Amino acid sequence: MLTVEWSEGGGWGVPHIKPFQNLSLHPASSALHYSIELFEGMKAFRGVDGKIRLFRPMLNMNRMYRSTQRCCLPHFDKDQLLQCIKRLVEVDQEWVPHSTEASLYIRPTFIGTEPSLGVSRAGHALLFVIVGPVGPYFSTGGFTPVSLLADPQYVRAWRGGVGEYKMGGNYGPTIAVQSEAARLGCQQVLWLYGEMEEITEAGTMNLFIYWDNEKGERELVTPPLDGIILPGVTRQSLLDLARDWGEFVVSERKVLMGEFLEALHGGRVKEVFGAGTACVVCPVGSLLYKGQTHDIPTMQNGPDLTKRFLKELTDIQYGRNESDWAPVVC
């Protein structure tokens, strides 16, 4: 693991790569009481050529930096942190699976360690990075569609809040809703927002809808980055790929639940899928909303676009296609 300590009086300490071990924290540490903490999620991939690559890591560094600002934790040098992470992956390279179905998960974490009770800016902090090999994210398997529970009484984030930042406080409160979804036979939660029931995210994934819009145009749409959506690295990559293809309209805009159901019942919805570092892309097969299950024809349509995105991204991640999105570590 990698650790770097910071204090208001001494600034940043020397980075250390050390054996994986427990942390020793003061019981009053601010991260434990006031959730002054944030994290990132990245992966390292062992390519078909044996080389180990990251995937667009500077997007993670930029997002982590924005979260740091919102959490009032000390600023860090993004390039230097990335170099430290690369060195950690190099040291732990034997933990990167020899498989194109698995990867090494990388979890940079930044916590306030101020040893006193009081809601204030932390004068002490710890940045650490842990890694571990991972396989497919969802228990349903590598490319099996998931079902979503959409219940407007639950809200993940709101404008003016911290939904666009990767903080632990955004995740803990969702576990009870996830458990309710599981009780009702669903794998994930479709988060709605506001009286108009804006569609936002699916579980911990960004959501994409591929459909024929009201103008009769084939369109790929995902909710905009307007304060309640996490700016996912995979989300940005899918948008970049689709715009580069130039084969259909690509939009970042609000989609209301009523608008989606109208399109679904009108036969205009082709595919719905989530996207994220953990899952890459994940097809959605059904939606439970107000006691009624709505089947989504994602799998009946291939799902051609979802599979295409999966192949494009994994070809880059595992070195089948050379790209500056996937810098070689070692």
Provide tags for this entry.
330 residues; eight-stranded antiparallel sheet; alpha+beta; six-stranded mixed barrel; 17 strands
If you had to describe this structure to a student in words, what would you say it looks like?
The chain is of the alpha+beta class and 330 residues long. Helices cover 24% and strands 29% of the residues. It contains seven helices and 17 strands. It has helices at residues 30-34, 57-70, 78-91, 175-183, 233-245, 257-265, 304-317, and strands at 2-7, 11-12, 16-17, 37-39, 42-46, 52-54, 103-112, 124-134, 146-150, 188-193, 198-202, 205-212, 218-222, 249-252, 269-276, 280-289, 292-295. The strands form two sheets. Strands 1, 2, 3, 4, 5, 6, 7 and 8 form an eight-stranded antiparallel beta sheet that branches. Strands 9-10-11-12-15-16 form a six-stranded mixed β-barrel, surrounded by four helices. Helix 2 packs across helix 3 (78-91). The two termini are 18 Å apart.
Topology:
Elements: E1 2-7, E2 11-12, E3 16-17, H1 30-34, E4 37-39, E5 42-46, E6 52-54, H2 57-70, H3 78-91, E7 103-112, E8 124-134, E9 146-150, H4 175-183, E10 188-193, E11 198-202, E12 205-212, E13 218-222, H5 233-245, E14 249-252, H6 257-265, E15 269-276, E16 280-289, E17 292-295, H7 304-317
Parallel strand pairs: 9-10, 9-16, 13-14
Antiparallel strand pairs: 1-2, 1-3, 1-8, 4-7, 5-6, 5-7, 7-8, 10-11, 11-12, 12-13, 12-15, 15-16, 16-17
Helix pairs in contact: 2-3
